[in-house]
Amino acid sequence: MPHESPEKNFYPLFLDLSGLHCLVAGLGGVGSRKLQGLLHCAPASILALDMEAPAAELRPLLEQPCVRFEQRPFRDEDLDGRQLVFAATGNAEVNRHIALLCRERHILCNCIDAPAEGSFIVPAVARSGCMALALSTGGASPALSRRWKGELTTWLEARQKMVRLMGRLRPMVLALHDETGHNTALFRALAQSPLQDHLQQGDRQACLRCLQALLPPKLHDRIPELLDVIA
């Protein structure tokens, strides 16, 4: 994870990369991780550049359909049509040049060795299923970010069943066409209930009682379907 600038307040957001065209300039250790992270999010295309031939462990990534690898230095025209850029070459001057061009052209850019020159930083991200938590220490301690990422991944995994149940329940509730305020109150009540603990413990009967107490009668016959997440 690159050093973060402590002098800026960054706005946290999650980007949908589908349809976006990306550039990774430099495939060293950091650039390789950026490439892998991009592939996890399925962008439209990735142009990957490096002066050296790719390492053996990188080749499966470079063979992905959306990736085009070219063994050559960065050229200014590589930014044409790109919306997201990682300046990760081994040359700080080249990285700053890329970041400057991106700023002039209003292209999102992460500059690995001079984050302040870019327009965004990449936080530590803990993932479990469809859930993701982003963590930044504001540059104070990337080492702590890495440690807490592991702890947060464990925390997320313990809540996976609750998220899957709520994901199944939401369209059922919305299909009843009740008032928005009623639905909001129901979802908040479920979130504050002991249902999550019952799911973690695999206590099907306790889950059943909790859902029967909170859900409208019209949905009671759907409870067994919701509780499939325990299996």
UniProtKB/TrEMBL annotation:
Keywords: NAD, Oxidoreductase, Porphyrin biosynthesis
Recorded catalytic activity of this chain's protein: precorrin-2 + NAD(+) = sirohydrochlorin + NADH + 2 H(+)
Pathway: Porphyrin-containing compound metabolism; siroheme biosynthesis; sirohydrochlorin from precorrin-2: step 1/1
Pfam families per record: NAD_binding_7 (PF13241)
Enzyme nomenclature, EC number: 1.3.1.76
GO biological process, one term: siroheme biosynthetic process
Name of the protein in question: precorrin-2 dehydrogenase
